[in-house]
Amino acid sequence: MGNPPAARARCIISLQVAIMSQQLLQVVSATVNEVIVENGGKATELAADTDLLSETALDSIGLALVVVKLEEKTGKDPFKDGFVRFQTLGELVALYADG
Amino acid sequence: MAELFDFNKPPQLPAGWTDALRGAHGPVAVRAHSPSLLNDCLRTAQAGDAQLITLPSHFHDSQVEALVQRHGFALVLAEGEAVPELPTPPAERATGALGLFTSGTSGEPKLAFHRWQRIGAPGRFAGERLPGSRWLMAYSPLSYAGLQVFFAVQAAKGQVLYCDGPTTAPQAIVDADLNVISATPTYWRMLANAWPTDLPTPQLQQATLGGERVDQSTLDLVQRLFSPAKLTHIYASTEVGSAIVVSDGREGFPVHMLERDGRVGLRVRDGQLEVRSPYRMLGYGAADGADDDGDWYRTPDLAEIRDGRVYIVGRSDAVVNVGGAKIPPEEVEAAVNRIPGVRDSRVFLKRSPIIGSLLSAEVALEDGAELAAAELKATLREHLPANWIPQYLVFTSDITLNANGKKSRR
User: Fold this and answer.
1) What is the per-residue pLDDT across B5-45, written as a single tens digit (0 to 9) for each?
2) Triad B103, B106, B111: Cα angle to 5°
3) Would the pTM count as exceeding 0.95?
4) Which ranges of B211-312 would DSSP assign to H, the alpha helix?
5) Distance of alpha carbon A19 from alpha carbon A16, whole angstroms
6) For residue B346, which of B136, B105, B168, B46 has the smallest C-alpha distance?
7) B392 shares contact with chain A (CB less than 8 Å)
8) Domain map of chain B by residue range?
9) ipTM of model
10) Distance (Å, rounded) from C-alpha A82 to C-alpha B353?
11) What CATH fold (topology level) applies to the domain B320-396?
12) Which of A38, A39, A64 is opposite residue B355, by nearest beta carbon?
């Protein structure tokens, strides 16, 4: 016996979310590296648990630019109602997945 | 569409406007779109020493309505509309003056009054030296600079050409055989860019830059492309009037102008330029509060003295604040514009949830030029402090200007 229909549907949805997050993760990492390179740094390997300010060459100004560029690329502004805390790449990705 | 206005023709006004414009019914506000009607209103009110308030045509209806309410204009003449019921003139004749609205780069436009004699004088001096000259109107016609062009052409008994913008201007300039152009540095750069290589440039008796901070690279560009008989740049503002005229082709003005005890006095106090001038406005309209600066008018312009020359390095109120650092956008633009391949730029602030405001720039490249954001920033890092480097870069074909042809900081 397989999963009951409702559980199967949930499974498919969470799989879709995972695929979307994977794409988003790529978009966000690419943007982070784009800004690092634009500001004279070297592109680095990034993972979901990379701390954006302490483990990359980004500073807060660079991070602000990442957010502007992400809004251009995704059309979403997760900060429109005020600042939301995030530290890692994965947390930033989640903000764009939810919005 | 280009339109040439000839000052040798007598004024032609709609029925019922002439008496009102001569001040027979008290202060009069005018809203006109066509340059010829506007010029004829100015000429008539000036001749009658009336109190005339000019409502810029780019103001929206609701904005005009609010201003009429705020300042209580009893009589408003509008182009294409019937003459309203004429009010009984006040017992005392209103002071003969021209009221114009400040550009209002920040905040609401203010109504500034000037005596006709005084506001007309600097332009008249310029025009009398160039009888019969033909000018381009490259400023907003109701700005202080635009009105100086009006008074100059009037004194020259010449002609003035109105055209749609710098992109279509070159052919119109050649067709009208213009010999004087006065414009903002931004306009000159756009005009230079739009000038077709196979179109000969006109023989200019005078080229003038004003209305914005004037930088050396734009002075050089105008000299190179037009080789005018005379190249001048002017420091003026709606409040203080025309204060500094420089004709040596160099940015800034010689420091001896600060010591000179002439008609206009200049000094630098705490890094800010102060001016004592007979061309200063009479005052703001009653609703806009007093101007109580004393003899010396403290301009919002930041001045710096280097090697015997005074340079305007930006405006105290245009200085942008990014994370507590005060940054003069004009200096950043000057650095961006010096990079080969860049035609013009505009520095502005973009709201940021992370740091409040992000220093940003629109960059227009020369035709065929290629410049990546990384390259541009790398060059800027060699010349500017790190926090002066615009982060968010928008490459565009044309720089965004506000209705007065100035660069907005928003």
Assistant:
1) 999 999 999 999 999 999 999 999 999 999 999 999 999 99
2) 40
3) no
4) 216-226, 256-259
5) 5
6) B105
7) yes
8) 1-316, 320-396
9) 0.81
10) 7
11) GMP Synthetase; Chain A, domain 3 (3.30.300)
12) A64
